[in-house]
Amino acid sequence: MSSRLQDALAAQRQIWGGWVVGPTMLGPEEFAHAGYDYVGFDAQHGYLDDADIALLLRRLEHVPIATAVRLPSADPAPIGRVLDAGADAVIIAMVESAEQAAAAVAATRYAPAGVRSFGPLRASLGHDIAELQSRAGVYVMIETARGLAALDDICAVPGVTGLYVGPADLAISMGLSPADAWTHPQLTDAMTRIRRAGAAAGLITGVHAGTGTLGKAAAGLGFRMVTLASESQALRRGAAAHLAEAQDGPAITDASRGYI
């Protein structure tokens, strides 16, 4: 049994994602209705707990959109809970070594291959251990200078599905500003290096773009999984456009940056 995320990646060169940082019931469905391929739930920087994510995932069971959850570490308990609740993949923040990447993989695998505890919450996922493991994507975030230095070792870890770039934190770690994330040659070179290393290792490469314009640039660099905007960014842009229309003001452009 493949996941929706696996199916989308198998069918399309690029897939486009939305991002959710708060416990909104409407945001994920609106992303799906707009034609987005996946939605990410942010348990690192967002205001979401396990119960929120479980409810959101259950609400999307019959909505045609794939799901991923970003977590702050490779702690196996939270990883197991979101997978039990039906997430297609986990995105693990701040991975800086092959050991951390291996720990993330182990948290998605049952014994003897890993440390995941058996506790399914979604009847629709069934109870087949092999299928539950095979549908669980493991994306590790390369967003620090240390992670960049360990890139080849991380790519070689068995079971890693893909690399996911956090441009803002990568910029900060390299002594630059988040505003430099898509313009400074040192950063664009680093992102290109990550994309090429992932592709060479047979991994999916993703990136947090934050806007449609930057998403187009990311696709041009060859990234296959591109997150465009959070629900708060989409709301802000839409609200500003409506206000500008009402006041007969200038058109809203895709100029705001998203750094999450």
UniProtKB/TrEMBL annotation:
One of its GO terms (molecular function) is metal ion binding. Keywords: Lyase, Metal-binding. It comes from the Bacteria. Residues 29-231 form the HpcH/HpaI aldolase/citrate lyase domain. It holds the Pfam family HpcH_HpaI. Belongs to the HpcH/HpaI aldolase family. PANTHER family: 2-KETO-3-DEOXY-L-RHAMNONATE ALDOLASE, PHOSPHOENOLPYRUVATE CARBOXYLASE FAMILY PROTEIN. This is 2-keto-3-deoxy-L-rhamnonate aldolase RhmA. It comes from Mycolicibacterium fluoranthenivorans.
